[in-house]
């Protein structure tokens, strides 16, 4: 027992001698180490979207030989995730964060000092026509579907103030961009003959019911009139 204790004591003393001597001023040494580095939050765009930095194009891959001029079409990249025992297939893509203009301002609505003093509302905008990281057919569908969010300069503007945290609102705006591109990339399916027939029957039934309600209302108004001899 005594031999084991002596062996442990000797190893601890030897390890202590091998360690480098402590700095006289740890704070000064720490500042010296971080002088040449730039601090970035864990929620910065470079860390949240590391694959989007330095990419020439994003979410745009050539898939056929029909594009003779080197252009590509937007495609979804399926990613398999496992959560709570269920396998989810999520379509993700990467885009150029340096092409986006991000700004912050005060959030609207009642709140107090946090709302009145903190720029928590996020606004993300980019020029849609010159966004070469999005395929041309997708840009055309976005311009038609979301024309109310495009200003006179042709910039697509997205805002978010759902959270009191700035980085969450920024993430919400970026997610809105993904959803827009994903919806615009899906080609509309042609309805079958059965679906077309059901749609026509629904429209006819709606018109028939509307006319019946109008006749009932007209009869009620007619019965209220006083007969004048």
TrEMBL record:
<dbReference type="GO" id="GO:0005762">
    <property type="term" value="C:mitochondrial large ribosomal subunit"/>
</dbReference>
<dbReference type="GO" id="GO:0070126">
    <property type="term" value="P:mitochondrial translational termination"/>
</dbReference>
<dbReference type="GO" id="GO:0016150">
    <property type="term" value="F:translation release factor activity, codon nonspecific"/>
</dbReference>
<keyword id="KW-0496">Mitochondrion</keyword>
<dbReference type="GO" id="GO:0004045">
    <property type="term" value="F:peptidyl-tRNA hydrolase activity"/>
</dbReference>
<keyword id="KW-0378">Hydrolase</keyword>
<comment type="similarity">
    <text>Belongs to the prokaryotic/mitochondrial release factor family. Mitochondrion-specific ribosomal protein mL62 subfamily.</text>
</comment>
<keyword id="KW-1133">Transmembrane helix</keyword>
<dbReference type="GO" id="GO:0005743">
    <property type="term" value="C:mitochondrial inner membrane"/>
</dbReference>
<keyword id="KW-0809">Transit peptide</keyword>
<keyword id="KW-0687">Ribonucleoprotein</keyword>
<feature type="transmembrane region" description="Helical">
    <location>
        <begin position="75"/>
        <end position="95"/>
    </location>
</feature>
<keyword id="KW-0689">Ribosomal protein</keyword>
<dbReference type="InterPro" id="IPR000352">
    <property type="entry name" value="Pep_chain_release_fac_I"/>
</dbReference>
<dbReference type="Pfam" id="PF00472">
    <property type="entry name" value="RF-1"/>
</dbReference>
<protein>
    <recommendedName>
        <fullName>Large ribosomal subunit protein mL62</fullName>
        <ecNumber>3.1.1.29</ecNumber>
    </recommendedName>
</protein>
<feature type="domain" description="Prokaryotic-type class I peptide chain release factors">
    <location>
        <begin position="97"/>
        <end position="224"/>
    </location>
</feature>
<feature type="region of interest" description="Disordered">
    <location>
        <begin position="204"/>
        <end position="229"/>
    </location>
</feature>
<keyword id="KW-0812">Transmembrane</keyword>
<keyword id="KW-0472">Membrane</keyword>
<keyword id="KW-0648">Protein biosynthesis</keyword>
<dbReference type="InterPro" id="IPR052104">
    <property type="entry name" value="Mito_Release_Factor_mL62"/>
</dbReference>
